[in-house]
Amino acid sequence: MLALEGVRVIDLAGGVAGGYCPRLLAGLGADVLKVERPRTGDVLRRTPPFAGAPSRETAAIHLHLNAGKRSITLDAATPTGASLLARLLARAGVLITGVKAPAPAGDPASLAARWPELIHVSVTPLGATGPRAAWRAPELIAFALSGYLSLNGDPDREPVKLYGSQAELQGGLHAALAVAVAIIARERGAPAQHADVSCAEAAGSLLSGALARHALMRRPQVRNGPRPAGFGPERLYPSTVRPCADGHVHVHCHNRFPDLLSVLMDAPRLAAPGVMDAPLGHADEIDALIDGWLATRTRGEAVAEAQELRIPMTEVLDPREVVADAAGHHAARGAFVRIAHPVAGDVLQPGAPLRPAASPWRVARAPLLGEHNAPVFSGDLGIAPRALARLAAAGVI
Amino acid sequence: MRPLDGVRALDLTVAVAGPVAAHLLSDLGADVIRIDPPFARPAAHLDIAPVAGDAPPGAAERPYDRIVSYNDLHRGKRGITLDLSQPGGRDAALRLAAACDVVLENMSPRVLPSLGLGYEVLRAANPAVIVVSMPAFGLSGPWRDRVSFGPGIDAMSGLASLTGYPDRGPMNAANYFCDYNAGALAALATVTALRQRDRTGAGQHVELSMLEGEMQLIGDALIDAAMNSHVPQRAGSAHPSMSPHGVYPCAGEDRWIAIACEDDAQWRALCAAIAAPALTTDARYADVVSRVRNREEVDAVVAAWTRDRDASAAAEQLQAAGVGAAPVLDVASLFEDPQLRHRAWIQWVRHEDIGPAPHTSAAFTLSATAFRIARRAPRFGEHNDDVLRGLLGYDDAQMDALRAARVIAETPPPANG
Q1: pLDDT one-digit tens code per residue, A241-299
Q2: CA-to-CA distance for B35 and B33, rounded, in angstroms?
Q3: For A10-61, what is each residue's pLDDT tens digit?
């Protein structure tokens, strides 16, 4: 059996956070039924870029985050739609909601009263309770309120977000953890419960001890550009991106053998006691020494020489280079999967984020909008095909 | 109750990703036993807090027990020291693995097997054990034996190349982004493997490549590259289909507001809020396509309004008008933030040597079970007796022998202290 086999998930959330959570659950074996608005569907379906020609089936982020789910359409604002949703919830083990959860999935208390066996996970930007729960908080706003945004960027410029929707993705990841925790607790005797996930708090976990350093050491952490500002930063340099002959590499000092860099680069100054004891204070000098060594080397040459000495240096790769996989690493591991899709064609996309040996990651394509209306509404709920056609014509499904 | 009450995990991890996974399990109720080498704690992490005013005698002589990052990464765990390269250390680790439900490790793939503690050995000692391995690049493939920490993986996943200011080079995420992502993924993998074992009785080996875990987070860009051979330019905080969307200066030193205007209605509301209704009829800003095209002008208009305003007050005003906005909270302001306070997101845990320490709590609250940081991180070798005698039944003679051979220790060697 798969890790989450037998778990039926109703996914009402959509979007990035609400998409990634059930995507992880589906990979681990849960049966995820994605409930989308008739005709328009999940917002991810409209989000560029597209794999090939734009359509509601070809958005890259939809193909990625909705992989492995089934899709039905349903307008829960109509009485019939609400009643169909209620029948689906009665058969489900887990409900995932986002910012605007339609009735009858509206509020946790009435959900718990009506379906006491149902685990409910709400994934919202700032959490379901508190003075700012109702704030409009798309990715950038949640990121700003996590504290983590303030640490990214140059000290003399504005803070800068990370690529994509990283706060929402962390929210989705932590929501999946919350679901798993609620499932195991339920199966071990706890009541079904409501997990209230905040994307800002998930992004805030990335602060990694900055709160404690601030409170205990009176050392407020501020953003520090390409130089690190994490644990004991004055003792941990370099850990930075530097240019070389054909791009950039990430250069890291080794935790245990910081003087290895001086050997690699034949630069005794790097191992001088004054430098080694307070490397961040010598960052400009260290960068200049590193840059001189890197200037005559390609990424591949520099990394090969460094790794031979067990120095953690790596190439900065852009997505095209990651996909091209010159080293053959991803091919050897099957890190990308090629999934046939009826509209997008054969799509190469990231495969398993984790590999439980006894629960092989379930690889399946993203569903077409409403692809599973017939098997779910007719097969599971017993609605006659003609009645289903009427519901479709009325825009209920 | 806590959801993982009754689960015991052995924490053989290093650096950041593994310790994060293990502390999440501990926060969820697992009894986590952390193994450190009986040598010095990692020298690069010398963020040593001053001694608390009411600290017990001797705290000043134990800087290795006041490492702030150690206390954060290993909160809630019990801690023992064990030299795994000695037979007595390996033997104790194997017995501990037999007494645990879960073993977590994230060393380079050749390390544990070379110590005689590979998965097959652990499984022989404990047939139902769940072993979670979190190597940087996976347990196979040409990069298997490469060394890297989290920030170096940001480089290889593609994230660094996509992140940063448009006029600057690739940028790493701050702190240990990749590690925390892998840590939460590993906790998810562990809990679901426990669920599977509850139903089948069987353990398993879970492999998690930190690189593959991070590639999930730029899946759209990887598909774009694979299918269209296209790579977007670094765009800072700009958004392809929202404008204004960015971080703008406010009154005071290093004060900023984030604004994300999601649609035309929010743009009109923003114009009203900043008392510039004429902008709504300006053709240059008429719809989102125009505003994205004229992004720099839009940003200048917005910045002219934010520049002399208090970030929080301006954000409140915009939110009241229905516009997505927030002050960019710095670390200090998190402690006072009303939303985070309401949700009790910062958990303070007493540490006798350094004073109360704040930790980030879970990103979720659970209605029926708790996520709670039970205690501070262990002192050096603090639970050697507790674990080796109490759990494994070692007697005086065995403990003396381990100490004599320095397989275990309660203080680091003097030279490294």
Answers
A1: 999 999 999 999 876 777 899 999 999 999 998 888 888 889 999 999 999 999 999 99
A2: 7
A3: 999 999 999 999 999 999 999 999 999 999 999 999 999 999 999 999 999 9
B278 touches chain A (CB under 8 A): no
A226 touches chain B (CB under 8 A): yes
Q: pLDDT-derived band of residue B416, with 50, 70 and 90 as boundaries?
A: very low
CATH number of the domain that A15 lies in? Answer: 3.40.50.10540
| ipTM confidence score | 0.98
pTM, two decimals, is: 0.98
Q: Determine the Cα–Cα distance for residues A3 and B95; give it in Å rounded to an integer.
A: 27
Residue A161 contacts B where some CB pair is shorter than 8 Å: yes
Domain check: are A137 and A171 in the same one?
Answer: yes
Residue A219 has pLDDT above 90, yes or no: no
Together in a domain, A305 and A339? no
Contact in structure between B312 and B334 (CB atoms under 8 Å): no
Amino acid at site A321: E
Contacts of A206 in chain B (CB under 8 A): 173-177, 180
A102 Cα to chain B: minimum distance (Å): 21
C-alpha closest to that of A147 among B326, B287, B396, B29: B326
- CA B347 – CA B287 distance, rounded (Å): 45
Q: Is B73 on the interface with A (CB under 8 A)?
A: yes
Q: Is the dihedral of CA A287, A288, A293, A299 positive or negative?
A: positive
Do the beta carbons of residue B192 and residue B185 sit within 8 Å?
no
- The rounded distance, in Å, linking the Cα atoms of A313 and A115 is 53
Q: Which two tokens stand for residue A340?
A: 């046939």
Helix (H) or strand (E) holding A320: helix A319-324
Angle at A166 between CA B182 and CA A369, to 5 degrees: 105
Question: Are A208 and B185 in contact (CB < 8 Å)?
Answer: no
Q: Are A349 and A200 part of one and the same domain? A: yes
Structure tokens at B368: 């029926």
Chain A and chain B share a number of CB contacts under 8 A equal to 546
Nearest to B337 by CA among B324, B346, B325: B346
Between CA B69 and CA A142 the distance in angstroms is 25
State which residues form the domain around A84. Answer: 8-205+334-393
Q: Which of residues 276-295 of A touch B (CB under 8 A)?
A: none
Please report where in the chains the tokens 């092989």 appear, as a residue.
Answer: A360
